[in-house]
Amino acid sequence: MAIHTRTCHICEANCGLLVETEGRQVLRISGDADDPISRGHICPKGNAIADLESDPDRLAGPMKRVGDQWVALDWATALAEIGARFAAIRAAGGSAALYVGNPTAHDFALGMQTGALKKALGVRAVYSASTVDQMPHQLAQYWLYGHNALFPIPDIERTQHLVILGGNPLASNGSVWTVPDVKRRIAELRGRGGKLTVIDPRRSETAGVADAHHFIRPGSDPALLIGLLLALDEAGLVKPGRLAPMLAGWDELWATLRGFALPDLARACGWEVDAIRALAAEIGDGRPTVLYGRIGVSTALFGTLAHWLINLVNIATGNLDRPGGAMFSSPAVDIAGGSGPGSHGRFFSRVSGHPEVMGEFPAVSLAEEITTAGDGQVQALVVIAGNPVLSVPDGGAMDAALAGLKLMVSIDPMITATSAHADYILPPCGPLAKDHYPLLLAPIAFRNFARFSPALWEPLPGQKRDWEIVAELARALADAQGMALPPPVDPRAQLDRMLHKGGRSLAEVAAHPHGLDLGPHQPRLPDRLFTPDQRIRCAPPALMADLTGRFADWLATPPEPGLSLIGRRHIRSNNSWLGNAPRLAKGPDKCVALINPADAAAHGIGDGELVRISSAAGAVDVPARITEEIMAGVVSLPHGFGHGRPGVQMAVAGQRPGVSHNDLTLRGRIDILSGTAALVGTPVRIAPAKTGSFAVAATAAWR
Ligand SMILES: Nc1nc2c(c(=O)[nH]1)N[C@H]1C(S)=C(S)[C@@H](COP(=O)(O)OP(=O)(O)OC[C@H]3O[C@@H](n4cnc5c(=O)[nH]c(N)nc54)[C@H](O)[C@@H]3O)O[C@H]1N2
Ligand SMILES: Nc1nc2c(c(=O)[nH]1)N[C@H]1C(S)=C(S)[C@@H](COP(=O)(O)OP(=O)(O)OC[C@H]3O[C@@H](n4cnc5c(=O)[nH]c(N)nc54)[C@H](O)[C@@H]3O)O[C@H]1N2
Ligand code: SF4
Ligand SMILES: [Mo]
């Protein structure tokens, strides 16, 4: 028997684990009590790594689709065939696209190879899960601080008031905020007399342990945030303190904000004016306070505006770059220092003219780039660790688009709703055969840390690591086109070079198998700013225009009648891809719609009955749970289900496939600045379901 220390690669919390093995078999996984950051915390997903390793549906080697059959191939044949087919498409004038999914963020070695693949594919912009996720944070930071990777992180260990909008860390374990053991940390905050406030259309698990919970109308957070700024101003509580000399555009900002009226803002978000004033008085009371917003405010029509406003509240109360407020990290590998600051609008997408954002086009625009004929039409697609059929709005449109590709390659261990469309699936080895370093996660951690976990074992014969697959695929595509590529990046050597830039080495980090605690965050402004004059740009022109244009118009428009759909995460899920782990699949049905009793009564829907939820994109039938935990007028449905689609080969997930939330979300609802999908606030109707079919096409009744 052996015990290995290992960072969990599943979610952003990056818990330290102890993995007990016998040969290549995982006997037990537990939290590593000696990890200074996660302190022994583990959630059910950490244990499920054992299921991932031994999943009988995990593909053992490359597969080729011939009609509706899958045929096993060796790597050399698969790569040669892909290369030849790709070169033919390119020679005939076809274009390619690359979609990069969420697990890529947890594989530092894989991320190092995507540059070569982009080059071999000839793509300028990629599509990724970022534009159904955190892109609004990055764009707001790029404009405010001059670098997209300067994430201000809630200093949970020292704050006295944490205000969470649109995040549910008790289920998600924190996001854009690596904060393992978050429940205990919230208890510690409250234990020292601090307070947690949660603003969420649902009384979430996190709201359940909060001191205060306020409902909010989905998608209306910018109205509340402007209201808070105006109420702070009214009460003389705008006190940026030592930040004051660093603020550019401050007066211009306030002149515009004062053009909005508190009563209008309050009405739009469903709050009383006095409740906004009361919260403003609290957050402006001088105690270390931090506002934090996550997916419920990012993936909304005004996602970038919301994140800008959250930063502005933290600035206005003097809580940016202050212990107990929102702080910038000092990671062992400085991603911000090592990469370009970001970009917006250097070029535009072919069909809808979306601006490029950080080198990406909106994920919602991938389908139209495949289906719209003309110069530059996408005919070949590579998907790395992604499941856009279930994760991107209008899964039906994505299904149809993928079916029309001339060549599709998925790098994925499973045959999913997305990879089922591929011509070739190139599966990676199990997770424990890969090294782990939290390259993208340590910089967003509540405290600075470094931890390197070497692979427990080599891949099985005939298996490869993700980074090797991507590097070899890039090489095969380049060779077939007669294109020269530099040799692949050696991940460990590259990581060592990156650590040396910060005065450390891989050997030093690896010598601390439980992790290296690099201490709490330190104030870093103004030196950390990447703006040319080292000032914070408080009134970026594009945001000011969005505020006085699109947002002001929205504010003046009465809300659409009907209900508003939002998402939900469960502690025993991770997006679309843990549904096949037997130990997570147990328990009550997760894919149920939460409906307020008033709405249920109005539409004749009983608890446990099937409800049909329909939108302009489609309809799904799903069991209803009638509960006061969701506000009236709102329906909550988790995403990542819908494993009953044709071709999916996930036996455990298939037993309770659920429906896909993204068969209801709309491609046309986006935050135009960042290209991020508005996953929350989809207008929907509900009615008792008659058939119980899992999904039906767009209903004529809607139009
Ligand atoms: N309606 C709605 N939609 C959402 C969201 C929401 O809140 N509501 N959330 C959005 C968010 S935040 C995100 S991040 C996206 C996620 O969207 P995606 O990244 O597109 O999808 P995932 O569901 O994370 O699927 C990841 C895929 O990677 C595969 N995989 C897992 N591990 C590995 C690995 O080690 N290597 C490789 N090569 N493949 C692997 C899995 O089998 C799975 O097919 O979904 C978004 N979609
Ligand atoms: N267990 C589990 N953990 C996960 C994941 C998972 O699928 N399962 N996914 C991982 C990924 S990829 C990510 S990005 C993170 C996301 O991490 P979080 O952002 O914490 O995600 P959620 O748990 O979906 O919480 C979002 C909350 O926003 C609320 N909300 C919806 N609309 C609005 C709105 O308009 N305004 C406000 N104020 N609130 C709103 C929802 O009710 C919900 O409680 O989680 C990660 N961790
Ligand atoms: S909280 Fe996240 S990192 Fe920690 S054990 Fe669970 S899935 Fe893994
Ligand atoms: Mo995400």
Provide structural commentary.
This protein is of the alpha/beta class and 703 residues long. It has four domains: 2-54, Single Sheet (N-terminal domain of TfIIb), CATH 2.20.25.90; 63-123 and 377-438 and 452-514, 3-Layer(aba) Sandwich (Rossmann fold); 153-332 and 523-544, 3-Layer(aba) Sandwich (Dimethylsulfoxide Reductase, domain 2); 561-697, Barwin-like endoglucanases, CATH 2.40.40. Strands 5-4-19-18-17-6-7 form a seven-stranded mixed beta sheet. A six-stranded mixed beta barrel has the order 23-27-24-26-25-30. Strands 11-10-9-13 form a four-stranded parallel beta sheet. Strand 15 (344-348) and strand 16 (355-357) form a beta hairpin. Helix 5 (114-121) runs parallel beside helix 20 (466-480), helix 6 (135-145) crosses helix 15 (303-316) and helix 10 packs antiparallel against helix 12. The model is unreliable at 694-703 (pLDDT under 50). The site of molybdenum atom (MO) has 3 residues, from loops.
